[in-house]
């Protein structure tokens, strides 16, 4: 790759590397949950989690590691996951979805990511966030607009 070429995020481990590999992803996740604890607007989504966030941090970090093209740590440790199906246990409205994404946006902004990767990552995270929202609402018989 020449110095003028940008890595093609989403191909191979380019996204994983751009996120700082496992250490960088763990920093992102730690910042994400810290922000969630601090933002009053995120209380609606924080209330979906247990008080102790240790397991949630570990699961999100291991999921993101594989999702971004790194080692498939989540499947190795916790088995397969369907993001939409997993989240049907909670009532995830647009409010929770948006609060989750706002916390992630703030956490991403704290990372030493390039602007291009930060934008890419947030755009990619909107997809599973929306799928979790839709699956949660469909599980409750709520019509989707």
Automatic annotation (TrEMBL):
The answer, when asked if Coiled coil is one of the entry's keywords, is no
* Cited Pfam families: Bac_globin
- Cofactor(s), by name: heme
Q: Which residues form a coiled coil?
A: none
Does Transcription count among this protein's keywords? Answer: no
Q: Which UniProt keywords apply?
A: Heme, Iron, Metal-binding, Transport
Q: What's the protein name?
A: Group II truncated hemoglobin
Give the species.
Answer: Serpens gallinarum
């Amino acid at each position: 790759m020449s110095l003028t070429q940008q890595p093609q995020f989403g191909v191979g481990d380019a996204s994983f590397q751009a996120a700082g590999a496992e250490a960088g992803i763990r920093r992102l996740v730690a910042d994400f949950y810290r922000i969630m604890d601090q933002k009053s607007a995120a209380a609606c989504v924080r209330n979906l989690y247990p008080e102790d966030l240790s397991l949630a941090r570990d699961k999100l970090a291991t999921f993101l590691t594989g999702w971004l093209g790194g080692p498939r740590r989540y499947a190795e440790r916790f088995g397969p996951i369907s993001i939409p199906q997993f989240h049907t246990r909670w009532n995830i409205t647009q409010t929770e979805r948006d609060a989750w994404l706002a916390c992630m946006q703030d956490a991403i902004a704290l990372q030493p990511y390039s602007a291009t990767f930060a934008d890419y990552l947030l755009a990619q995270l909107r997809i599973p966030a929306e799928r979790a929202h839709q699956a949660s609402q469909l599980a409750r018989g709520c019509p989707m607009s």
